[in-house]
Amino acid sequence: ETGVTQSPTHLIKTRGQQVTLRCSSQSGHNTVSWYQQALGQGPQFIFQYYREEENGRGNFPPRFSGLQFPNYSSELNVNALELDDSALYLCASSYGLGPETQYFGPGTRLLVL
Amino acid sequence: AQKITQTQPGMFVQEKEAVTLDCTYDTSDPSYGLFWYKQPSSGEMIFLIYQGSYDQQNATEGRYSLNFQKARKSANLVISASQLGDSAMYFCAMREGRSNFNKFYFGSGTKLNVKP
Q: How do A10-13 and A108-112 pair as beta strands?
């Protein structure tokens, strides 16, 4: 069974640029959630994709957007990067929308200069 | 109000001793799930243990157990026989049952240091 994978592992961008982060869900999982974890804090929910549709969103502006593909992999896109977007971005996959455990990937560390 | 509160920013424990990490939660939903994750310095969140709000018994997974006190809205993680590899950040999380999406609320975490 393949776990959740994310790419790239690290990324450096400058303010105003755009970035795309990628996530492959665990085998058999059809739901992907994205979280932002600032230094010294717990993860904050960005949004979730279920069967290729966004079905829930946290308190993040529209410049945070995403996609889910037929194979349930997912992308997180952030436009017009700001310094405060520097964080660890975590992807988590699960099966369905029930209380099942989410399994996390290793994360992408984004630094915005 | 915070959904998940972890009041211990850092904890020290001697190797082979037991340690309790505190977590309190706030919800009016009768159906919810409580989770604990371990985050080493590498960043990956590792699932440890799950407790459902309707579960009658406390969850256990190997050296991890969850001390679930529903009336007090607490879900403390107990690690028995601490090992050096247990040194990491530990996060408590909750999912509310009324939500139709799988949003987890996380606490601010507790950094555990296991001393040899």
A: parallel
Which residues of chain A have a CB within 8 Å of the CB of B37? 104
| Interface membership of A109 toward B (CB under 8 Å) | yes
**Which of B97, B94, B96 is CA-nearest to residue B107?**
B94
pLDDT value at position A55? Answer: 86
Q: Is the dihedral of CA A36, A40, A42, A44 positive or negative?
A: negative
Q: How many other CB atoms sit within 10 Å of the CB of residue A96?
A: 12
Secondary structure (3-state) at A12: strand
Apex B75 CA angle, A90 and B34, nearest 5: 45
* A83 φ/ψ angles, rounded to the nearest 5 degrees: -60, -35
Contact (Cβ atoms closer than 8 angstroms) between residue B108 and residue B92: no
pLDDT score, position A102: 87
Q: Are strands B10-14 and B110-115 parallel, antiparallel or unpaired?
A: parallel
pLDDT in tens, B55-77: 999 999 999 999 999 999 999 99
Kind and range of the H or E run holding B99: none
Find which of A104, A109, A111 to mutate to test the B interface (most B CBs within 10 Å of its CB): A104
